[in-house]
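Narrative progress, year one. The postdoctoral researcher (J.K.) led the effort to move from monomer predictions toward full complexes, under supervision of the PI. The following entry was the first complex the group processed end to end, covering 804 residues in total.
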Amino acid sequence: MKLKLLGEAEDELSKGRLEAFSDGVLAIIITIMVLELKVPAGATFEALRPVVPVFLSYVLSFIFLGIYWNNHHHLFQAVQHVNGKILWANLHLLFWLSLTPVATAWMGADFNSWPVAMYGTILLGAACAYFILVRALLAHHGRESTLARAVGRDVKGRISIVLYVVAIILAFWRPVFACSLYVAVVIMWLVPDRRIEKILE
Amino acid sequence: MKLKLLGEAEDELSKGRLEAFSDGVLAIIITIMVLELKVPAGATFEALRPVVPVFLSYVLSFIFLGIYWNNHHHLFQAVQHVNGKILWANLHLLFWLSLTPVATAWMGADFNSWPVAMYGTILLGAACAYFILVRALLAHHGRESTLARAVGRDVKGRISIVLYVVAIILAFWRPVFACSLYVAVVIMWLVPDRRIEKILE
Amino acid sequence: MKLKLLGEAEDELSKGRLEAFSDGVLAIIITIMVLELKVPAGATFEALRPVVPVFLSYVLSFIFLGIYWNNHHHLFQAVQHVNGKILWANLHLLFWLSLTPVATAWMGADFNSWPVAMYGTILLGAACAYFILVRALLAHHGRESTLARAVGRDVKGRISIVLYVVAIILAFWRPVFACSLYVAVVIMWLVPDRRIEKILE
Amino acid sequence: MKLKLLGEAEDELSKGRLEAFSDGVLAIIITIMVLELKVPAGATFEALRPVVPVFLSYVLSFIFLGIYWNNHHHLFQAVQHVNGKILWANLHLLFWLSLTPVATAWMGADFNSWPVAMYGTILLGAACAYFILVRALLAHHGRESTLARAVGRDVKGRISIVLYVVAIILAFWRPVFACSLYVAVVIMWLVPDRRIEKILE
């Protein structure tokens, strides 16, 4: 069935459902992480202590997913139409993001080399998937489109990928250093953009 | 990528996806709390008894989240456009609300000082986040906008914050008093509005 | 904040977000029930056997929720505008429906008087909430509206409520009879409508 | 209430809510599977090993659900209007898809005849449900509609059903062979369509 639709009406696919589906998946991922926050075993302040590292991992992942939702929102604002490849590039991104809750919970439970490296691997996968999604969109819209001008050179995206790779390696030496790099990436995306761009140029 | 989009087309961001995403997250939070309602261990009426306090916490949180969804709905009815700051202020609100299920479950399991105070802290965080969101929207729309007239002095919002602070302190003395204040806030928001406003003035 | 919005723009609230939120909650409830289907303990056919009653409860609840989604969809097709009361009547309906997964799991785990009666109570609550929602909508649209003509006398809704009450009482005598009544209600809603209407008149 | 609405305004039901609800359910199913990925018990690479088969099942199901979402998206792109039968045919499809997470988890936990055959049964159920949905849509739109031309002979859909039946039988002899057939179906749907069509003709 996909056969002829793809052939005839490829460019007419509406972006609305892609946005709605992505919003749905992101909303669920972001909320599902809460399920990993176990109810403390007891009604004392001490009972809260083992929850703290899990909570901090949760906050970190919440902001990461928030950044992705934000960027996805901005990106598709400039998108005109989508095709089958873009649908799959988007699903690929959602796949990596859907692994965030498990990685978050593992890092929160065991702050050691493998869990921290795994967390970075998921972030790296998501960053690469986002990069591929942007390329698929650009290939579909052309180099002169509003989208192409809006995306620009995507400096932050490239820096993030490099920092994740460094962090994954560092995780086997000092997990704390790896985690600091994750936080650095978060801050880079949150800080008002122009100042960073000026610093970089 | 966000860089130039934010610079050039800041005001054109559609509020539609923000609403859809918020609806998604709120729908999930409200439903996820049900997962905390464990299946009773046995087929007797007695088996239902330990479920009762968890159930009552669930009802309370359901109404709280319902009020937030209601107010969010009313608020964005008057909103014209959004920007990056507003997206983040909204995510900040969703962050606090996403902690409701855990806090609800903890209070339902152990009706004691710390869980009850923690529940109030989450409510306080959400109330402050809502306050910040409203300020961000007002800053973007101007003092003469329909939004500004609709928001008014936001008496209920301010009273809620004060009551939460009092409740958190009371929780360490008598948890029941703290919980009564939470119920009082709920009633304040549910009761038809004009009567309360008259009482207050 | 709700104060003045409700006063000035009561009739202008869009039904779009109410539909989207209800769809979200229903989609989550219907899917969350799957979480109660535990992975069988072993790779044999026998391992599937204890899952069977849980599965049948799941199928029953799936159809019930499907009927509610279907009716909600048809109902709001004829709705023009909503107000604060309708938002809350709708949340009240979602509240009862959100309890379906727990009730389903309890009935699936222990097919006895209390769980079966509890399941009927949840269904009864949902049916009454739906009835209230319809009244709130009628009060807002007037007796001459398309909505009023579409709703008609709502025979099925009234019969359902009666059957639930009977079933809850029967559950304490013979749970199987109660369950048969639940199935009867499902069939009544699924069978093409005109034939039933003729039978009834 | 459905009575008269179905009679008078049958063709006017909007497809928007059906799409939104389906997107919601699919988004939740796809994300809920992640909950089956348990946090590894320990911070070593070895702790990851028992997670690998579960993870691979997850990837397989993720792609299957992605294909369904994709095809659903393409299919409804050509749909003009829906009726009560189509709503139920769609819910029937969602029912089978909602069973994917449990089947995935069982197959991931015990790679043996029954779990693998059960996984195939769920896929078969979903494929048949999709087939029925397409027929219901065709019956509503007529043989000369854009939809009818877009669907064509639905070769892939028919082949999939045959392969699933073969796989379910094979599962009792060699589960690996069954699983290879599932992967073959996935590849058939992912590979660019025209080439496959040429091969088949």
